[in-house]
Structure formats: structure tokens, C-alpha cells
Amino acid sequence: MTRGTKPSTNGAITDAEVEEQIRELFERNYELLRHEGGHVLAEGAKRQALEQSLLYWRKLKAIATSVTETEVKLALPGLMTPKRRAFVLEGVVDIVREGDEVRMYDLKTHEEREVRAERELYEDQLNVYAYVWKGVRGQSLDGTAIIATRLPQELREALRTRDPDAINVAMASWDPVVDLPFDENEVARTIDDFGRCVDAIEDGEFTPPPPDMLNKPRGTRRRKDHGDVPGGGAEHEPTFAQIHCRGCDARFSCASYIAYQRLEARGRARMIASSDGTDADDLDEWIEANLGDEE
């Protein structure tokens, strides 16, 4: 029993007790990270992180209470890149066994819309995990899915406004579990892609895409028309910069990202100019003066 909660009469832990335990574990983990690594969050960011943890419990309670194996480490050793470098593919998944069915879940720190927009990229990774689980470990598998852990924009906005009705609507439409098929025939191609990535890293090939690509949907070499992508159409898909650049520590020293920011700032300035009559050329000069040199 945790502090501040009333024990249930039938011996089973209640939802209130679970949420109190989540709060206590969150505080304990935060203090551990703060003391060991010096990681400190602003109070608002800390509150949002706890809120996200509680919302995930409320939304995914059925899966959380069904997990039979958590953080299962999968590894495929003995692989070789095209340039003959040895490497190992590793991953961590959660396994749910319900009756005779076994399902595999992989958590990603992405939004649901990002996963649905580019299913193929996530299918590639799950194909390898399924191959290891079934072929190497000799276990049955009936389905795979991604759990997108980043709250959708609509829900984040509703939480900021603290509007109960808006929060309820956003929670009802939020579906962070994206079921994906697995095709073991694609495993060889995926492993080859990973191998080429390893070679590029080892050879120091880190050239970013050109600036105009950063504002486009990330895209894949095998893009399909997915009818269930919220909003539908490429114009509603997250851009390369939104997915990759926003979390990159090197973005402010990246020539492509700096150029992309210039283009974005200039676009916003022209929108303001067209709406209030401001001289766009003056705004361009201000942008150039305040963004600094590209070098």
C-alpha cells in the first residue's frame, strides 16, 4: 500500500492506488536522475512529464495490465556490413500473452501521426524483431504494434487550456497503438539498410539533407497512400525537420538547419507583412541581421 491512498476492500489494487504509485515512482526516478546525472527540469516540464505518464496509464491500462514480459532484449549477432564490418542488431520490446495469442509492442518517442504517416519505416524494424523472436528464439507471434509515446498536438493544446471538454474529446480520439503487419521476407533488405548506415557512421558520412528537404514530409522510398493517416495527404504529414531536427543537439551548427530556419523566418515575416501592411523588405533585413552568419 502506498501513502495517501485508501486500500481497496477486496485486496486488489485500485486505479487511485496505481496513480499514487506512479507519482511516487516518478519522483523517485527524477531525484535519482537529478543526483546522478545533474538533469534538472523546469517545474512546468516536470509537471507535463508526470501528466503524460498518468495519461498513458489511463489510456493504455488494458495493455499495461496484460504485459507478461517487459523490456525483452532481442539481439541478432554475426551481421556484416557491405564494407565487411561486423555489427549486432539489438532492440527492446514488451510482450503480451493473452490466451493463445502473443503480441509484441515497441515504444517510440514519436507522435501517433508520425508513425501512421510512415508505417514502412517502423515495419522494417519490427520485421527484424519478429524474425529474431520467431526464428532465433523459436517463439510464436501473432501480431506487432508500435506505441507512440509523444502526446498528440491536439491533446497537448487541450491540456494547456485546462478545458475539461477539450481534454475529453482529445483523449477519446487519441489512439497511440498502431498495429503493423510483419513480413519476414523484408528482413534481408532491412538488415542491409542497417549495414549501410553502420558503414556511413564509421566512415564519418554525416552530410545533412539540403535545406529544402527539411520542410517536406519525411517520405520513404516505398511511400504508400494510407487512408487511415489522420488528416490525410502529404500536407498533413510531419516534416523532416519536425521529426529529426527538433531533437538534434547539433542543429544550431548545421548549415542545412540554419538555412531552413532562415526560410521559415522569412516565410513567417511575409505572412505578417501581408496581414498588417508591414514592408517585407524591411523584415528581410531584420531577419538577416539577427540570424547571424551561416558559416
Key attributes of the depicted protein:
alpha+beta; 5-stranded mixed beta sheet; disordered N terminus; 295 residues
How do the helices and strands follow one another from N- to C-terminus? HHHEEEHHEHHEHHHHH
So what's the oligomer here? single chain
Q: How does the helix and strand content classify structurally?
A: alpha+beta
What is the mean predicted local confidence, pLDDT? Answer: 81
Largest sheet: 5 strands, mixed
Q: C-alpha Rg, in Å?
A: 23 Å
Please explain how this structure is put together.
The chain is of the alpha+beta class and 295 residues long. Helix content is 49%, strand content 15%. The protein contains twelve helices and five strands. A five-stranded mixed sheet has the order 1-2-3-4-5. A hairpin with a 2-residue loop joins strand 2 (86-98) and strand 3 (101-108). It is globular and about 60 Å long. It starts with 14 loop residues before the first helix and ends with a helix.
